[in-house]
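COMPLEX REQUEST
Ligand: zinc ion
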Amino acid sequence: MMNNKVLTILLIGSLLMLLAACSQNTDVSVEKDPKDTIIDNEPNEEQNNPDAEEDPVVEEEVIVLPSQELQKGDQGEEILVLQKALTKIGYEISPSKVYDLETVWAITDFQIQSDELWITGIYDEQTKLALEGFLDKESTITPGEGLPLLEEEYLDDDTVVIGNPYEVLSLVNKQHALPAEYVPSDLVIPEVRFPFVEDVPKKQMRKVAADALEKMFTDADKESLDLFAQSGYRSYERQDVLFASYVSNHGEEQANNFSARPGESEHQSGLTMDVTSPHVNYALVVEFGETEEGIWIEEHAADYGFIIRYPKGKEAITGYQYEPWHLRYVGVKAATEIMERKITLEEYIEEILTN
Ligand SMILES: [Zn+2]
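STATUS: Structure written out below.
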């Protein structure tokens, strides 16, 4: 019995020593991993090692990128961290703690240059991962190679040409025009129903909006609704021809009420789709708002990042009559607030930029 006890104690003892040795080994291997050393172990090392300050690697500031989605107008410490990260990879932007137009530009330019990302101007999970990759590898970017940093330029007394046509929170209206040469680089044809079969340019939307539209149509199908897409992207040249024909038929003042001058149509942004249903014979008419499809759109479009861009009673702000069929992609966060509060994109943008 005594012998067995001694043996057991010896066994436990050697097991403990083995465990201790193992955990020491693990610690050593963690410290050897340069990535982990920089991100996780640095604060501990600094506490334990009085010579740490002499080590240049330890002096380097660690950037832990924010994990929440951020967009134009957002404010706070996490914006400052994002701006530091952007500065580190090559953007010369002033740290302001505000997701200002410069920050929107840098994020948009970064997204354009990194190929796999959706181009939105919004800092999202995928953008975070791509930025982390840059910081880890200490890579730098050539700012403006994707999207030059442009000032807004006045076209005439009351119309500016916007500098960043790619951001999904861009304002396009009778006072804010898209550049004449702007053709989005990421146009695709969404896999949704159209009431015609030809592969015409107006089937197209920008990737981020096309993906959202597909999801919305799939869910509408589950509700046995009969949604159809009618008209998406429209080039500057096409709008030019259309507007000229409206003017010759209805006169300029009337044409301006239901159509847009070239550059001022949201359809050129690639973020817009006119939708309809067989209940109004696939037409783009006010009655669409009273169909099952129109009512569902009004209630659910925001869940997919879309707004009804020209709501009833807001003609004085938007410059357009009520169009229950004209959907504009702005991202889920903005869409939810705009639709819930029954405000317009004009009001929303003004609020987030002046707060
Ligand atoms: Zn439209």
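REMARKS: The longest helix spans residues 2-32. The chain has a mean pLDDT of 87.
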